[in-house]
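Structure first, sequence second, as always.
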């Protein structure tokens, strides 16, 4: 189809593909091939479209609106969504848009009703102020943690952490340790058969035993806890998993052999 309007010629992509296929089949006739190639070069200067119904686009009225790009708000359907959401989240202290929509859609699926789209569910909850306020941003500490945990010499820097070991009879063994950041060896450790810390802070007790000067890093410093946390994971995976965890007393008797290897 070729349409002239305001000196703009339009031709469909299908006709362009057919012309190219015809050129490929006319290799034995150089004259016809040259004529078609000239026509193709002339057509490249025109405007190509991928859809044939171009006349509808050119004959639309000035007040035409594309319904696909204009959101149609169905008030009654939105109110039904709001009532269903309030019935699910009314007694909850915390929830999210995805969580609430999953509950509502589960009930609607069981009742044989159409499911709500997650994006629409979030939009309606936001419009009716049913979403919880977002968590406040963390206050950036004035003490910037730009150091490196690993050091080149021993006895220069240490890290500490704690862990808990659950026993088969319900007992809990709590432990804490100091670790050298160079040799990755345990400097000192303590363990006791209860949950939580004793009266005196554990790291203070460990510091007193070795005379180490405690230096606290800024808050929210995951770099400092990475080395100690990695040890806790390795200790539980390679040692605690092979221990006899029948009771707290049995675990405490195995702790020296396990930690002294590290």
């Amino acid at each position: 189809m070729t349409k002239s309007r305001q000196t703009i010629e339009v031709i469909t992509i299908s006709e362009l593909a057919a012309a190219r296929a015809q050129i490929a089949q006319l290799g034995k006739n150089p004259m016809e091939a040259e004529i078609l190639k000239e026509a193709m070069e002339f057509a490249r200067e025109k405007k190509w479209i991928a859809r044939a119904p171009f006349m509808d686009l050119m004959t639309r009225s000035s007040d035409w609106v594309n319904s696909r790009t204009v959101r149609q708000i169905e008030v009654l359907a939105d109110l039904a969504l709001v009532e269903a959401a309030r019935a699910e989240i009314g007694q909850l202290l915390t929830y999210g848009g995805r969580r609430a929509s999953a509950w509502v859609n589960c009930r609607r699926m069981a009742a044989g009703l159409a499911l709500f789209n997650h994006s629409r569910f979030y939009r309606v909850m936001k419009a009716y102020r049913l979403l919880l306020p977002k968590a406040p941003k963390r206050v950036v500490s004035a003490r910037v943690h730009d150091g490196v945990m690993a050091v080149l010499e021993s006895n220069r820097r240490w890290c500490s952490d704690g862990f808990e070991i659950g026993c088969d009879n319900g007992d809990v063994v709590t432990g804490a340790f100091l670790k050298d950041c160079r040799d990755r060896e345990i400097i000192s450790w303590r363990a006791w058969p209860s949950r939580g810390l004793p009266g005196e802070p554990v790291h203070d007790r460990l510091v007193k035993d070795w005379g180490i000067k405690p230096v606290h890093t800024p808050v929210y410093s995951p770099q400092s806890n990475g080395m100690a946390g990695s040890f806790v994971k390795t200790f539980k995976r390679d040692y605690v998993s092979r221990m006899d965890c029948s009771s707290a007393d049995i675990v405490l008797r195995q702790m020296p052999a396990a930690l002294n290897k590290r």
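Margin note: The radius of gyration is 36 Å.
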